[in-house]
Amino acid sequence: MRFKLVLSVKSESFGSVLPVSYQYELSAAVYRRIRENFELYLHWLSSNGFAPIDDCRNRLFSFSNLYIPRIRVEYDRLHILVKRVQMWISFLPVRGTHEFVKQLFSGETFVLGDRRSRVELEVEDIVECPAPEFGEEAEYLALSPIVFMVARPNRSMEYVGPDYPGYADCFYRSVLGKYEKIFGRPFDGDTGFSWSLLSEPKRKGIFMMRFTPEESKVIGYMYKFKLSMSPILHQIMYETGIGEKVNLGFGCVEILRQDTTPNDQNFLSDEKDDTSVKII
């Protein structure tokens, strides 16, 4: 279940200049709202049949970068040239989710930035997006950088992009891993999996906790791609993201074109009927 958040830029508070690397601050703002409404969050989880495990690292949702229609980039700063920006947030559970999102975000303000510049954003509107009818094949666009890491021979980790020979397998293992964490068992159907790149990938280096002793850098890629697999796996990826560090706002995707299923089947409900479900 996906929602578009329309955010008003309150330039009178701190100005309208964001750091290019704002994703850590955006994810912190989202999780802060959950922590401040944790009883509401637990009730929403349990009403959808998910175990209320107190673990804020991985959740049944994903969220995009900010969509800013007009900007001016100066070094590591984004000058916002519009009065409103947007972002998208998706949730795998459906029951009570519209009310949950409204209570969580309606009228709330977020302050994003670092010690050099900040921007205050106010949630002006929340729009529920039409639900896709998931089929076996779809074309996607990354709404935030997609991140994959692999182990080097010395056991250190490195970020890899679509030119990595095993990149399609990273996708495959990521979505199957999500399925197993959600439903508590491996996917036992025919995935019919295939992956192909549809555009030139753009490498993005995003700083986390900039100008602090904990500063680090995450490497991800923005691109369009085509994916074939079971409809339930499409649904899981669309709602909860793909790759690593999804909890920090990476790996959110949008459907560009799809082959829809011939009926209005709720794949998530069907899977839940067969087995107990737990939170990621």
UniProtKB/TrEMBL annotation:
<dbReference type="InterPro" id="IPR045747">
    <property type="entry name" value="CRISPR-assoc_prot_Cas6_N_sf"/>
</dbReference>
<protein>
    <submittedName>
        <fullName>CRISPR-associated endoribonuclease cas6</fullName>
    </submittedName>
</protein>
<dbReference type="Pfam" id="PF01881">
    <property type="entry name" value="Cas_Cas6_C"/>
</dbReference>
<keyword id="KW-0051">Antiviral defense</keyword>
<feature type="domain" description="CRISPR associated protein Cas6 C-terminal">
    <location>
        <begin position="132"/>
        <end position="255"/>
    </location>
</feature>
<keyword id="KW-0694">RNA-binding</keyword>
<comment type="similarity">
    <text>Belongs to the CRISPR-associated protein Cas6/Cse3/CasE family.</text>
</comment>
<dbReference type="InterPro" id="IPR010156">
    <property type="entry name" value="CRISPR-assoc_prot_Cas6"/>
</dbReference>
<dbReference type="GO" id="GO:0003723">
    <property type="term" value="F:RNA binding"/>
</dbReference>
<dbReference type="GO" id="GO:0016788">
    <property type="term" value="F:hydrolase activity, acting on ester bonds"/>
</dbReference>
<dbReference type="GO" id="GO:0051607">
    <property type="term" value="P:defense response to virus"/>
</dbReference>
<dbReference type="InterPro" id="IPR049435">
    <property type="entry name" value="Cas_Cas6_C"/>
</dbReference>
